[in-house]
Amino acid sequence: MIRHLRITVDGKVYDVVVEEVTDQGAPAPHAPPAAAVQPAAVASHAAAAPVPSSAPVAPGTGEAQRAPLAGTVLSVAVKPGDAVAADQEICVLEAMKMKTSIFAFKAGTVTAVLVKAGDAVDSDQPLVTIA
Predict the structure, then answer these.
(1) Which residues are within 8 A (CB) of 64 and not within 5 positions of it... i.e. 6 or more apart?
(2) Residues 25, 120: Cα–Cα separation, whole Å
(3) Cα 48-51-54 angle, rounded to 5 deg
(4) Residues 54 and 115 occupy one common structural domain
(5) What is the tens place of the pLDDT at every residue in 82-121?
(6) Do 31 and 55 belong together in one domain?
(7) Where is the Lipoyl-binding domain (predicted)?
(8) Distance CA 40, CA 12 (A)
(9) 33 & 66 share domain
(10) Separation between Cα atoms, residue 8 and residue 14, nearest integer Å
């Protein structure tokens, strides 16, 4: 699985791609080669295309996208009813002066947004639900 992350170090922003590997250390068969770390000003971080919703989804149903770390919500890029693609940025958290983009773990429809900009969140706290 490929994960796109934006990391800020000493005020300089980097877009990085992290690639999951199998137990044998080889890249997962479905994953393209990982890209080199590039400054965000140079890297083009294309947003994933939204996936159209096929049927209405009940509010709050689905699986929770959880915070990977404790921090403060800087921005939320989705709202209930939005169709999202896997690895599409859904919000940005800040912790210890570092910004971390949070990406959808799967494609689907956002059924609930549980946080707003300025909220403090704990690690593993649900941020949105996606069905």
Answers:
(1) 114, 126, 127, 128, 129
(2) 37
(3) 175
(4) yes
(5) 999 999 999 999 999 999 999 999 999 999 999 999 999 9
(6) no
(7) 55-131
(8) 8
(9) no
(10) 6
